[in-house]
Amino acid sequence: MKRLTRAWVIVCTLAICISANSLPAGVWLETHATDEFVKYVTKMTGAEPKIAPAGVCALKQGSARVAIGRNPLANSLLKKGILQLPEDLGEEGFVIKSVEGGGTRCLVLLGGSPKGTLYAVYHYLEKCCRVGFFADGEQIPKLDQIPVDGIDIVPPT
User: Fold this and answer.
1) Which backbone phi and psi does 15 adopt, to 5 degrees?
2) CA torsion, points 88, 89, 91, 95, in degrees to nearest 10?
């Protein structure tokens, strides 16, 4: 297994935490956001991230976790005060943040609503991974690893 570098994570050690009840009341957007994240990370790196069901996010020491939307990992980080959301996040606002939680690095992509979570995923892909979404197609860079460290994005609402 490759060792982690300072600002990137090896994709094969990446797990994504989603909510087990991701379908009711429009929250299917968070499932779609996760599917999009997995699709583009796989295209960029050639390795498909593991999706862990709610509460099953433990990985080998030194790996990173990605929390997309409201799930037990994101809720735990919020409850412990490790992650804080702005009060004026709004329905379309989002937070993309690198945090340490339980001895493991975490990347949180969380919106004020499921739509905001989907926006967080696309923003991360564009700004942090250099994916381009254009009218005539996509530009998807080839990466060995994706960034997870040193990210703190809260766009103005």
Assistant:
1) -120, 145
2) 180
Does the pTM exceed 0.85? no
Q: Which residues contact 41 (CB under 8 A, 6 or more apart)?
A: 11, 14, 47, 48, 49, 129, 146
> Per mean pLDDT, which of 34-38, 105-109, 136-140 is the most reliable?
136-140
Give whole-number Cα distances, 122 to 83, 104, 129, 153, in Å.
20, 24, 10, 13
For residues 36 and 72, the answer to whether their CB atoms sit within 8 Å is no
Question: Residue 71 in contact with residue 27, Cβ under 8 Å?
Answer: no
- Is the C-alpha dihedral spanning 116, 55, 83, 103 positive or negative? negative
C-alpha distance across the termini of the chain, in Å: 41
Residue 50 makes CB contacts below 8 A (sequence gap 6+) with: 14, 15, 16
What Å distances lie between residue 3 and 17, 46, 86, 143, 149, CA to CA?
A: 22, 18, 34, 16, 15
